[in-house]
Amino acid sequence: MLDTHHSGANQAVSHLLSHNLLLYMTAMSEIMLTPEMRALGKSGIMVSPIAWGMWRFGHASHAEGRALIEAAFAAGVTLFDTADIYGFDGSGGFGDAEASLGRILAETPELRSRMVLATKGGITPPVPYDSGRDYLMAALDASLTRLQVEQVDLYQIHRPDILAHPQDVARTLEEMVTSGKVRAVGVSNYTVAQTQAIAALLTIPLASVQPEFSALALDPITDGLLDLTMERDVAVLAWSPLGGGRIGAPEDERSKAVAAALDVVAQAAGVSRATAAYAWIMAHPARAIPIVGTQNVARIGEIAEVYKVRFTRQTWYDVLVASRGERLP
């Protein structure tokens, strides 16, 4: 005769075990983000998992600029990204962002020791690009003068100069390092082939690449750049992580679909959509470092909340599918 009491108890235990196993598997499948410093490629430089970008910093007053920098420090940021062209409005302002930061560093020199300072050069409006040795060396010196420092931690070629042979560019980058003016070098907006060429010709590590990368800018995933960086241990600095503002204020159907997928995760973690968008980038195994561009103290403070976000494979792929506009094969 069947013991219905024990049968029911066994079913209850089995159900409980299955439920606990499901919870365990769900927890194990979450992609955890942590605030620990990580290496900037093979450079030996340690940086925060998120950077703060200063492309609009040239318009800040001294007090405003100092407040923004302190907010970034408070949020755990150590990597600060600028460029000589930041501040340029089409007719003037070239170098303004660097100069503004330089004035703050001159008046408060202890800030410099707390930051990993990155800048870029090679855009020469209206040419538009010059990666020749003479120009880049002069551009580096000009950046150091504006920043009022003797050395930057990372110097990147801002845009590839088609007329510059990668071997000549490699020698120039090496000269920057041997001069003591630069600790590590990288490239920005290079194609995969251009990145492979410069990396092969350098006798020092290529520390970083800086592509546009967001839930709305998927090229680094699809063109092989992220795979290359993982293969060669190169850091990825992701510019425009909010898709040029389209993630925060979506207007077209694709952006709205991505925003909706991000909102599911953001609401579960109690964070903003922007924070979830940063976390989506960081969840990729290439460990890309989003460059947060906001010039708002409160929004800079949200950077610290990114570690609350828990993507699963399902929710991460949901964002990808929304961006692609079609199911994965």
From TrEMBL:
- Which SUPFAM superfamilies does the UniProt record give? NAD(P)-linked oxidoreductase (SSF51430)
For this protein, the record's InterPro entries field holds:
AKR, AKR_Detox_Biosynth, Aldo/ket_reductase_CS, NAD(P)_OxRdtase_dom_sf, NADP_OxRdtase_dom
Domain NADP-dependent oxidoreductase positions:
49-316
Q: Could you tell me what this protein is called?
A: Aryl-alcohol dehydrogenase
